[in-house]
Design brief:
The chain is α/β, with parallel strands linked by helices and 532 residues long. It has helices at residues 13-30, 44-55, 64-67, 78-88, 93-118, 136-140, 143-164, 169-186, 188-204, 215-220, 224-246, 274-280, 295-314, 328-342, 358-368, 375-387, 389-415, 443-451, 488-491, 505-509, 512-515; strands spanning 68-70, 269-270, 346-347, 422-427, 454-455, 467-469, 497-501, 517-523, 526-531. The strands form three sheets. A five-stranded mixed sheet has the order 5-4-7-9-8. Strands 1-6 form a two-stranded antiparallel ribbon. It has a domain at 403-531. 52% of the residues lie in helices and 7% in strands. The protein is globular and about 85 Å long. The chain crosses the membrane at residues 20-39, 74-92, 99-119, 139-161, 173-203, 223-243, 296-315, 327-345. It comes from Melittangium boletus DSM 14713.
C-alpha cells in the first residue's frame, strides 16, 4: 500500500529519548508547586492582593474603587502583575499564579538550553539548573526577578543568533527586541546584568563575515541588526530612568523604606563584606527548608557537574569554537559573580536585597559552563542531570505540603473575616516551623484579598507598583517588621480587623480587648480580633 505524501515517520526511539527525559524532569521540577494549597513565599500574599486589586479595581463589592487607582506610568513590575491578571480572567487567581510560576520553573532549563544551543554547545547541562529555580529568591517571593531570569537567558541566545545566523538575522533581532523589553518590564536588576552580558557577547562572538571583512566598517555592518535589536529596550530603560530619577525621594535618615541620603551617597548604601558574601553564596541557593533537606538536590547537581568537569578534562571532545568564543559562557559567569560580590546589599529608598539575588544567576551559568564531553558520555550525564529532579520533587513537595498544613490557619481566619475588612497585621512572629523564611509576615494580605479589603501595609505604597492610593494611605507603624511600634490611639481607629501572630492579643490591646474588641477566631499561632 502506498504511503500518503504527507506521511512522516515517527522519530526513532534514540531521538525521542532526550525529549522524554527532559519532559519527565520538567514535570518533576514543577510538582512542588501543585501539591500544596499555600506556597511558602514571603511576598506572595502581597503580590496576590495587589493583582486582585488590579483585576477588580471597579468592583463595588470591595474597598478597592474608593481607595486605589491605577498608576499610569512605566514601572518595571508591570510584567508579572498584568500577566497573572490576564490569566485571572480565565482562571482563579491562585491557579493563574501557579501556572505563571510553573512557566518560570520550566523556562529556566529551557531558556538555558536555548542559550547553549545558540553558543554551539550541548544542551544537557541546562537540566542541572532546575533545582536552582528554587532557593532564596523564591523563598522571599521575588517573583518579578525570577520571571526575568529565563527572559534574560533568551535575550542572550537571541543576541548570539542575531550575530551568527546570517539568513534569519532580522527575525532573531525582532525576538531580541521583544525579549529585552520584557526583561525590563519584569525587573530592572536583571536588565542591569544584560547591560554587561550583551556587550561581552558582542565582543567575543565571531561572525561568518569576519573572515572576509576589510576594515572596521565591514566588520560593523553585520553586527548592526543585533545592535538595533537592543534599541527598544534601551530607549524604554532611559525613559524609565528619567521618570524614576525625576521624582523627589523622601530622605529620612534611619527610617525604613526611605532614602537616608542622596542615591549613591555612603549613608544610603548598605554593604555586605566579601567574607559574608562568600559564606552566603551556596547557602542562598538552597535555603527554603529549616531542616536543610533541600540542599540534597543541589548536592546531586553539583556531583553531576563535577563528573562532567572531570570527564571534560580527561576526555575532552574536540571543540569547533575559536579560543575567544570559548570564553563567552565563562565570561557571563564572571559578570554575574561580579554583580554578586561588588554591588551593595541595599540602596535605601530605591532597591533592596540587591547583590544577593545574583547568586542564583551566577550558579545557573556556572553549571551550564561545564566542559564539553564526548558524545559517548553525554547520554549518561543527561540521565544523571534529569535524575536530580526526583529528589527535588520529593524533598520540596514534602516541605511545601508541611508548610501548607501550617498555613491552614489563614483559611480558618478568613472564614471569620467580614466583607470589606480593614486589616491591621501585627505579626510579632513571622517564622514557620518548616520554612526558613518569615513566610507569615504578610498574612493580613491573605485575609484582605479573600474579602475584598485592605491592609495596613501594601506594595501600592511603592513606586514600582501598578497601583497607588487615591488619597492618604491608612496610618500604620513605620515598617511591617516592627509591630511593637503599633499605637492604637493614633493608628488603630482606621481598622476593624487585627491579625495578631506570635503574642496573645491581651498583650497588645490590654483592657480594650473586652471593651472595644473581641477575639473572633484563633488558629495555630494567630488570632483574629475584630471590633464589637
Amino acid at each position: 500500500m502506498a504511503r500518503d505524501a504527507t506521511y512522516s515517520p515517527r522519530p526513532p526511539v534514540s531521538a525521542r529519548t532526550p525529549r522524554l527525559v527532559l519532559a519527565a524532569a520538567l514535570v518533576l521540577g514543577v510538582l512542588p508547586l501543585w501539591v500544596s494549597s499555600h506556597l511558602p513565599q514571603v511576598d506572595l500574599p502581597q503580590h496576590l492582593h495587589l493583582i486582585s486589586v488590579l483585576h477588580r479595581l471597579e468592583d463595588p463589592t470591595t474597598l478597592y474603587p474608593q481607595l486605589f487607582a491605577a498608576r499610569h506610568e512605566l514601572t518595571p513590575y508591570l510584567g508579572y502583575y498584568h500577566a497573572v491578571s490576564l490569566l485571572h480572567w480565565l482562571l482563579p487567581l491562585d491557579l493563574a499564579n501557579r501556572l505563571f510560576l510553573s512557566a518560570y520553573v520550566v523556562g529556566v532549563p529551557l531558556s538555558l538550553a536555548f542559550l547553549l544551543r545558540a553558543l554551539g554547545r550541548p544542551t544537557w547541562p541546562a537540566l542541572l539548573a532546575l533545582p536552582l529555580a528554587y532557593g532564596d529568591n523564591f523563598g522571599w517571593g521575588f517573583i518579578n526577578y525570577l520571571a526575568a531570569l529565563p527572559l534574560a537567558l533568551l535575550c542572550c541566545g537571541f543576541f548570539v543568533c542575531t550575530l551568527t545566523r546570517v539568513k534569519q538575522r532580522r527575525a532573531w533581532a525582532a525576538g531580541l527586541a521583544v525579549a529585552l523589553v520584557a526583561v525590563l518590564l519584569f525587573h530592572v536588576q536583571v536588565f542591569a546584568f544584560l547591560a554587561l552580558a550583551l556587550p561581552w557577547l558582542l565582543l567575543t562572538t565571531p561572525l561568518p563575515e569576519d573572515a572576509h571583512a576589510r576594515g572596521r566598517v565591514e566588520r560593523l555592518r553585520p553586527r548592526l541588526p543585533a545592535l538595533a535589536g537592543v534599541l527598544p529596550g534601551v530607549a524604554l530603560f532611559l525613559a524609565w530612568v528619567v521618570l524614576r530619577l525625576g521624582q523627589p525621594s523622601e530622605v529620612e535618615a534611619g527610617a525604613p523604606w526611605k532614602a537616608w541620603g542622596p542615591m549613591l551617597s555612603p549613608q544610603n548604601l548598605a554593604w555586605k563584606s566579601f567574607a559574608q558574601n562568600r559564606a552566603e553564596f551556596f547557602q542562598v541557593l538552597a535555603n527554603l527548608l529549616r531542616d536543610g533537606s533541600d540542599r540534597w538536590p543541589l548536592l546531586a547537581v553539583g556531583a553531576v557537574g563535577a563528573c562532567a568537569l572531570v570527564l571534560g578534562v580527561v576526555r575532552p571532545a574536540p571543540s569547533p569554537e575559536r579560543p575567544l568564543a570559548r570564553l563567552r559562557l565563562p565570561g557571563l559567569v564572571v559578570l554575574a559573580l561580579g554583580l554578586y560580590f561588588l554591588l551593595p546589599f541595599d540602596i535605601r529608598g530605591y532597591t533592596y536585597y540587591l547583590n544577593t539575588r545574583y547568586a542564583q544567576l551566577a550558579a545557573m551559568l556556572a553549571l551550564a559552563s561545564v566542559p564539553v564531553t564526548r558524545p559517548s558520555t553525554e547520554r549518561a550525564l543527561r540521565w544523571a542531570s534529569a535524575a536530580c529532579a526526583l529528589p527535588l520533587a520529593l524533598v520540596l513537595g514534602q516541605g511545601f505540603r508541611a508548610f501548607s498544613h501550617e498555613a491552614a490557619e489563614w483559611d480558618a481566619l478568613v472564614a471569620a473575616t467580614a466583607p470589606k475588612p480593614r486589616v491591621m497585621g501585627l505579626i510579632f512572629d513571622a517564622r514557620s516551623r518548616v520554612m526558613n523564611h518569615p513566610v507569615f509576615l504578610h498574612g493580613a494580605a491573605e485575609l484582605a484579598r479573600a474579602r475584598g479589603g485592605i491592609t495596613n501595609f501594601s506594595f501600592a505604597l511603592t513606586p514600582h507598583s501598578p497601583l497607588r492610593y487615591r488619597g492618604t494611605p491608612p496610618p500604620t507603624f513605620a515598617s511591617e517588621w516592627r509591630p511593637q511600634e503599633f499605637d492604637f490611639a493614633t493608628q488603630g481607629g482606621a481598622y476593624d480587623h487585627f491579625l495578631v501572630r506570635g503574642v496573645p492579643p491581651s498583650r497588645v490591646f490590654g483592657a480594650r480587648l473586652q471593651r472595644e474588641l473581641v477575639v473572633t477566631a484563633q488558629a495555630g499561632d494567630s488570632w483574629l480580633v475584630r471590633r464589637r
